[in-house]
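One such given next:
>
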Amino acid sequence: MSKLSKPVAAVAALLLSLLCANAQSGGGYDLTWWTIDSGGITFATGGTFTLGATIGQPDASNALTGGAFSLTGGFWFTPACIPTNGDVDGNGCVDDADLLQVLFAFGSTGSNPADVNCDSLVDDADLLIVLFNFGSGC
């Protein structure tokens, strides 16, 4: 095989694999919309879901929604707040540590992990959520 035929074969194999790629679907989820993007990989998890994504995509900040789900692309996109069941520290258990975090942050405004209902204020509503779910997940 000549020196030129190896790179040509590699490029042909790459192009063939791109033509054969199919979007994923199944289990009630449909991922038929896709783009070829560039960048590294980062993971986002929530509940039982894990999403791996690339950075630097040309479709950054486009919001895709369907049913109860929403996906926003972009460089390390993080939503302002994600409502929780009172698990402030994210250890899977609503316990005294979460209760203390809400009590110490009580009255604060703005972005705060103790704001479990995402209303930009740590108040009695957040405290009630923690107390109502106290002991869950433990």
Notes: Residues 5-20 form the longest helix (16 residues). Residues 39-79 form one domain.
